[in-house]
Design brief:
Elements (H helix, E strand, L loop, with lengths): L1 E4 L5 E5 L5 E5 L12 E4 L6 E6 L5 E6 L3 E6 L9 E4 L5 E7 L2 E6 L3 E6 L4 E7 L5 E6 L5 E6 L3 E6 L4 E6 L4 E4 L4 E4 L3 E4 L5 E12 L4 E10 L4 E7 L6 E9 L3 E8 L1 E8 L14 H5 L14 E2 L2 E5 L3 E6 L5 E6 L4 E5 L2
Parallel strand pairs: 22-26
Antiparallel strand pairs: 1-2, 2-3, 3-4, 5-6, 6-7, 7-8, 9-10, 10-11, 11-12, 13-14, 14-15, 15-16, 17-18, 19-20, 20-21, 21-22, 23-24, 24-25, 25-27, 28-29, 29-30
Length: 340
């Protein structure tokens, strides 16, 4: 269901529908062969979709659909939960760490901060009126970003005060026939310079009940709300974008599941503005409100690589050194790929 490399690249952590976490040893022998020894880790009473790591690399942190936040010692032979906190009522979908702070977002519409190492409760506030799908600190830790089912992104300061709100509307649809919302930001990834964020999901939904639509990645400058690019596949594919990784070498990887699995790569040669807050007098000087960027017609950007995958994708992760890609598949298998 989910996958993440440890910061040092020695372990891969995955989650499964039997409520367990798996620790995979990625250490290679002298011949370069990886044994991939697996250890199952029990602690959650439901599925786990959010996996993270403390800044000091001492703790693995997991968040589940049971609303629990757990810490585990990182990389020990047989990890057991050390601390737990009931962070949300209902599912936790978003998780990120910065310094001693652990940020979570859940189906209760709340953002919550807990403090390591004991998961002491910090600030918690109602941030959205629907399910939160993503929650992250900005790369410098000064801001908090959250995104929900309806494709709305919010930027908060460290005190939990709203700085900006904007929409990636193409990633959401209300289906009147079924009386349901479908979409949301299913995955996201910051640009290497921290100025932009790539948001992945589903668009062109024709049947919300069956999840019929097409994958789409929208790239936005998160401090202005300006949509910078639409990343689509040349060939039509039915499914949802479940993973996106912005590689430091200058390309964006996207993975989707639905009618099978696909992996694409797009060049990030569209220009993104610097990540600076608009000046207070911007509206006076230009006559335009910098919080409400003008809608622009964007030409879709097509991929330069398209690769069919062996099964439906559920998650994707990039190693810290950018040399390996992990993909979690629907069939209970995770694969690690070397990137040239």
């Amino acid at each position: 269901m989910a996958c993440r490399f440890s910061p040092n690249g020695k372990w891969l952590y995955t989650s499964a529908q039997d409520n367990t976490i798996q620790q995979w040893d990625l250490t290679a022998d002298k011949d370069g062969k990886i044994a991939g020894k697996k250890v199952d880790m029990a602690g959650h009473a439901s599925w786990t979709r959010a996996i993270g790591f403390s800044a000091d690399n001492k703790w693995l942190i997991t968040a589940g659909y049971d609303g629990l936040l757990l810490t585990w010692p990182l990389g020990v032979p047989f990890p057991e939960p050390v601390r737990q906190a009931q962070a949300h009522t209902g599912w936790i979908r978003g998780l990120d760490c910065h310094g001693e702070r652990v940020l979570t977002g859940g189906n209760d519409g709340r953002l919550a901060i807990h403090l390591l190492p004991d998961l002491r409760p910090g600030k918690s506030w109602l941030a959205h009126d629907c399910h939160i799908y993503q929650a992250s600190f900005s790369p410098d830790g000064k801001f908090i970003l959250s995104a929900d089912l309806k494709g709305r992104l919010k930027v908060w300061d460290g005190a939990g005060q709203l700085v900006r709100e904007f929409s990636v509307a193409a990633l959401h649809k209300y289906d009147a026939g079924f009386g349901a919302d479908i979409g949301g930001v299913r995955a996201w990834s910051f640009s290497p310079d921290g100025a932009s964020i790539a948001c992945s999901g589903i668009t062109n939904v024709s049947n919300a009940f069956a999840g019929v639509g097409n994958p789409l990645i929208l790239v936005a400058n998160w401090l202005t709300g300006e949509i910078r690019a639409e990343l689509r596949s040349k060939e039509a594919f039915q499914g949802t974008g479940w993973g996106v990784c912005w590689h430091k070498s200058g390309f964006i990887l996207g993975a989707a599941g639905g009618n099978g699995g696909m992996l694409w790569a797009w060049k990030d040669d569209f220009k993104a503005p610097p990540a600076n807050l608009p000046k207070k007098n911007d509206k006076k000087e230009t006559g335009k409100d910098p919080k409400k960027p003008e809608d622009k017609k964007l030409e879709p950007v097509n991929e330069f690589v398209a690769q069919k995958l062996p099964d439906n994708v559920r998650d994707m992760a990039l190693s810290a050194d950018g040399k390996r890609l992990a993909i979690a598949y629907q069939g209970g298998i995770s694969r690690v790929y070397a990137l040239a």
